[in-house]
Amino acid sequence: MPSLEPLLCVNLFVCRPGRSTTRALISVQHKWLRTLDNKGSVRALFFDSKKTFDIVNHNILFTKVKNFDVSRC
Questions:
Q1: Between 26 and 7, whose confidence is greater?
Q2: Using one digit for the tens of pLDDT, what is the confidence trace for 10-58?
Q3: 20 to 30 Å CA-CA from 11: which of 5, 20, 47, 72?
Q4: CB distance 35 to 41 below 8 Å
Q5: In sequence order, what are the residues at sequence separation of 6 or more whose Cβ sits closer than 8 angstroms to the Cβ of residue 36?
């Protein structure tokens, strides 16, 4: 995982040390409140993605990970 860390988006909270759904919610709430304080508007869309990896072609996924030159694990 450390070799992938520089490649990951800062807003990715899944499967990372020190990150959690709680931290994700705090982060998004902070952004929303800052936007509202600046007279902006906020829209949100929520969806359940727990079955996402059931439809991912794992061969393609592994090929993409290999291209990141990650140590074999």
A1: 26
A2: 878 777 777 888 888 899 999 999 999 999 999 998 887 777 778 888 8
A3: 72
A4: yes
A5: 42
Q: Are 42 and 32 in contact (CB under 8 A)?
A: yes
Please give the structure tokens belonging to residue 59: 């061969």
Query: Would you say 42 and 36 are in contact if contact means Cβ atoms under 8 Å apart?
Result: yes
DSSP assignment string, 2-27: TTTGGGS-TT--TT-TT--HHHHHHH
The CB density around residue 13, as the number of other CB atoms within 10 Å, is: 17
Tokens of 26: 């705090």
CA 53 centroid distance within chain: 14
pLDDT of residue 70: 67
